[in-house]
Amino acid sequence: MDGTREMKDSKQLISNIQAQYPRLSKGQKLIAQYILSNYDKVAFMTACKLGETVGVSESTVVRFANALGYSGYPKLQDALQELIKNRLTTVQRVEMANEYSDDTTILNKVLKSDIDNIRGTLEEVDEKAFEEASNKLLNARKIYILGMRSSFTVAQYLGFYLDIILDSVHIIRMDMGDAFEQIVRINENDVVVAISFPRYSKKSFEVVSYAKEKGAHVISLTDSIFAPVASIADNVLLVKSNMASFVDSLVPALSISNALIISVGMKEKEEIKEHFDDLEKIWKMYSVYE
Question: What is the pTM of this model?
Answer without folding.
Answer: 0.70
